[in-house]
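Subject: Sanity check before I submit

Could someone independently write out the structure tokens for this chain? I want to compare against mine line by line before I put it in a report. The sequence has 204 residues.
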Amino acid sequence: MVARRRRGSVGGGSLLNRMINRPATNATTTALMWGIAWLIIGSIVAWYFRLEPTSMFGYVASGYIPLWRMTLLHVVIWVVSTIIPYIFAVLRNRGVSTMEFFGRMLFAHWPVTLLMIPALTTDISRRVAYSTYMNDVSLCFEQAPIFATLMTIICAIVLVWWLYWSYRAFSYAQRRGGVLTLLSYIVSMALSFPLTRMVLEAIR
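---
Independent answer below. Compare away.
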């Protein structure tokens, strides 16, 4: 009986480890296909509820945007936000597979779509508060402190989830780890954020 419990705990730990490290445990094709599936789902939800992506990590309530254009915006986020990390990865390992790297990074980005959940409503005041928070957190805390607190909790959870998954995808795709890989990840993501926002603003 003790042996059974031990085997069960090991199995549970193994399952938990696979879930936490999903961007690395998925097969390359699986990661890419699931990433594309979530990109399409995110585009449809954003289109239906009229939410426009503003960066790698943010949305605002908007007017009507055609579905094809909404999908294009999400594709742009995927490609532009992955270019700089890909360059850093290639500098460390020239054998990096382009499809694997872009696929795993796309899969790792899907938790960001959860940021749309508080705005999935027809309540105008909540949509305004949502956009206010995304543009000016301090102002939102002044105007709607309860909503701002809820948004902060959601953003913190999603941010940690996304950054950890992205790092796992980044390191696994280039078959490198260690401090240098972590530093290159941090720098590449820091550069990708303003670049992605700049490109989205240019498109708009």
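---
OP: Matches mine. For the report I'm noting this point. The two ends are 63 Å apart (CA to CA).
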